[in-house]
Specification:
Length: 425
């Protein structure tokens, strides 16, 4: 299904006067404090967040999975779903593919479909964390880190295949997340496993096109519960440094132990020009993959403070912005609308912070003043700025309301049936 502009216009028509009243008030308030609201809107207009192909079906836990109707069963349907999101919020104009869950059978067809929906192909993701049918060697005891050279070679070859697919689609980055590690003390020689991983990644890196990036993701535990080869930003940074200037660390918000100061990691990686991008999600305990901003919106805001302090216009930076979440009980499309909204709220709030005043407070060790500056921005309701940006770009003023009014899920069920199941989940 497609959304046409008339539907969006009809939705906006009933809300525009209320929106304008709130927006005009906020605009005047912010402008009186010296904020350049138009430049914030312009930055929001350009900011795009990639949707992963695996987030469009019902996620699950190891205890069960509760499907819902109208899930996208093919890559084409997944691209169509992202097209729906993008026409509603005008901020989801990219798809991040997971190989082999979403190998395009018709590359030209997939590219044309995406082009028509104004969607680009973001980073491609390799998968050496599970065995595929007809695979010769098992990854049960690791992939790029494996003790046996033929297993490592198979994993390297898979990454090269993913690059080839990405090249045909127009992707410019390869994301590598490894489940490699050990579940029991004594199982693994830490140093050997790390060196094997580096050597394998070097073999992948050699084949990386010059205008590509390699994004090295880290995670402290799970599925291995004693050690992970790339357990934290330090080990990811060591690899990215050793590989070269096309390799970067990727920060997945859920891949940290509780209470880790992620914003500080972001600041230091940026400082070293080794931050590649993000996998956004939220969590209370571990890698919970919950809706962005649902648990720790203040942390998200603090991360964006660090980002905008070093990269004033995020859409113009070379960082990769992706959501990586899984949805067990929510409609994924509604969840993704909420996630994109949360990311843009944090961005807009961070842009409200007066950098010069904050730096002055820091220089003068004015701890109270610094907190006042941060919280004045955080406690500003910036949602009218996001709505204005959507209105300017011909998106819907209220995305979730639009999704529900138009009964989009019911229409997808009618089109695709109630038992469709998304691949890869
Ligand atoms: Mn991730």
């Amino acid at each position: 299904m497609n959304i046409n502009q008339t539907q969006i216009e009809a939705h906006n028509e009933t809300r525009v006067s209320n929106h304008k009243a709130i927006y005009t008030f906020l605009y005047a308030q912010l402008a009186s404090k010296g904020t350049d609201v138009d430049s914030i809107i312009a930055k929001l207009n350009d900011f795009q967040i990639a949707i992963p192909s695996w987030a469009l079906g019902a996620g699950g836990t190891r205890f069960g999975r509760f499907g819902f109707g109208g899930e996208p069963a093919t890559l084409e349907q997944k691209i169509e779903d992202i097209g729906l999101l993008h026409s509603i919020n005008q901020s989801s104009g990219a798809i991040s593919l997971h190989i082999p869950w979403d190998i395009p059978t018709d590359i030209t067809g997939a590219k044309n479909l995406a082009k028509n929906l104004n969607i680009s192909f973001d980073a491609v993701n390799s998968n050496t964390f599970q065995d595929q049918a007809n695979q010769i060697h098992s990854y049960k005891f690791g992939s790029l880190c494996h003790t046996k050279a033929d297993v490592r070679k198979q994993a390297v070859d898979h990454n090269l295949e993913v690059i080839e697919i990405g090249k045909q689609l127009g992707s410019k980055a390869l994301t590598v997340w490894l489940a490699d590690g050990s579940s029991f003390p004594g199982q693994l020689n830490f140093a050997k496993a790390f060196k094997n991983t580096l050597h394998s990644l070097e073999n992948v890196y050699k084949e990386l096109p010059n205008d590509w990036k390699m994004l090295v993701e880290y995670k402290p535990y799970e599925p291995n519960f004693y050690s992970m080869v790339i357990q934290d930003w330090g080990s990811s940074y060591m690899l990215a440094n050793a590989l070269g200037n096309k390799a970067f660390s990727l920060v997945d918000l859920g891949h940290h132990l509780p209470n880790t100061n992620i914003e500080q990691i972001v600041a230091l990686l940026l400082m070293q020009q080794k931050l590649g991008g993000f996998h956004f999600n939220d969590s209370k305990y571990g890698d919970d993959d919950l809706t962005v901003g649902s648990i720790k919106p203040y942390q998200l805001f603090l991360i964006f403070i660090e980002l905008v302090s070093q990269e004033p216009d995020l859409a113009k930076s070379s960082l990769a912005w992706m959501i990586d979440a899984s949805h067990n009980i929510k409609d994924p499309l509604e969840d993704l609308l909420q996630s994109v909204e949360a990311i843009k709220i944090a961005y807009a709030q961070a842009l409200l912070v007066d950098k010069l005043k904050l730096e002055e407070a820091r220089t003068n060790n004015d701890t109270v003043g610094a907190q006042e500056i941060l919280q004045a921005a955080y406690r500003t309701d910036v949602r009218p700025l996001l709505a204005e940006s959507r209105l300017q770009k011909k998106g819907a003023i209220r995305p979730i309301e639009f999704f529900r009014e138009q009964k989009i899920r019911a229409q997808l069920i009618k089109e695709r049936g109630s038992t469709n199941r998304a691949t890869g989940l």
